[in-house]
């Protein structure tokens, strides 16, 4: 079977880039070429280019993996996004990614591009754990591998913040304006976190650079949403049928997508509104809504699924007892949210249940269960702290914490940057206070929870039941 390339004739039912790809030049460097980016920001950029053409092609950078970059080159940057639902499948070949580079093979090319005036935005999806963010200090985690390496050797970075700082340093030296840094990961106030980490790392090599970034730089916050499971052999087989060509980068996703962005860009941006992006002054209410209602429920379902042998999120939501649990969790989360402009929160919750139930989406509970130590703070722990401060019992959040601990005690093969500490805690047996070893892990739970005996008793009570 022929591989998908720019010269592949595509069937009429496939949505194709509606602009002159051959004349598209890069304007964005994106770090983190995973499934999420390809089904989200790249799709928005594809829509933006079709409505208002400009030099906003994406250079996709993978810091570690070379395979994906080689596949992208073999396919002229093209790949298929299959939106799946009970109503059927619809395929779109996305054309906004013009080039792929890998940190392992093309470091100098990436850095010189970042210092090229044509590049005006650097976006990123590298997952929570990649930033080297210390939730206790709010600054750089000085034990994080990439942070340590990039502080020691700033001109040959390995981590995402190291690349941003070296790219900005080169622009500063050349008298260019900075690029806008747009974080697209599921961190609360993601732009502010990345700004702080960038300025801290820049300051450690050159205080003048840090001052320049603080004064001239822009780090808009953004809330991103689309459920994109890891692709499988079935995904690729489906793409082959839909296209009549082989596509090693094809993805399954849901029809839904959402992007809420603060409109603060140094040197312009694509017309992402064309794909439905919403530009607002303050992203925080949207981000809290999504992190707590969607991602918080997701984590709960992932650990319930892992505990009870359920493979996919859709299997968990199909169990009436667990669906009811999700509903109750959402009701508790609602107490922590302010009104969100333009959003009906009751309809939003119903829509989430629908999305979790999508029969076309095979989202592994194992995948969502990954990296709990990096995800639960913003999804579960911070809302618990807020509720306790208001005099509430925050029992819903105690329940999810207990489900997570029960999962850690039962499943030995976990994927988490703090796996060693979590596994050691899970192996300790404390019959009268089973959650204690987890609360003793430094910086894992916020201090306000560690010190709250009543809340910890709720966690223990749930853990006993599980
Ligand atoms: C999920 C997210 O894996 C996870 O932790 O909760 O990837 C989720 O699917 C996306 O944030 C949806 O926008």
Automatic annotation (TrEMBL):
Annotated Pfam families: Mannitol_dh, Mannitol_dh_C
The Mannitol dehydrogenase N-terminal domain, residue ranges: 27-273
Enzyme class: oxidoreductase
UniProt GO molecular function: oxidoreductase activity
The enzyme's E.C. designation: 1.1.1.-
InterPro entries xrefs: 6-PGluconate_DH-like_C_sf (IPR008927), 6PGD_dom2 (IPR013328), Mannitol_DH (IPR000669), Mannitol_DH/Oxidoreductase (IPR050988), Mannitol_DH_C (IPR013118), Mannitol_DH_N (IPR013131), NAD(P)-bd_dom_sf (IPR036291)
Domain Mannitol dehydrogenase C-terminal, chain residue ranges per copy: 282-429
Keyword hit for Amino-acid biosynthesis: no
Protein name (record): Mannitol dehydrogenase family protein
Origin species: Neorhizobium petrolearium
Keywords in alphabetical order: Oxidoreductase
Keyword RNA-binding found: no
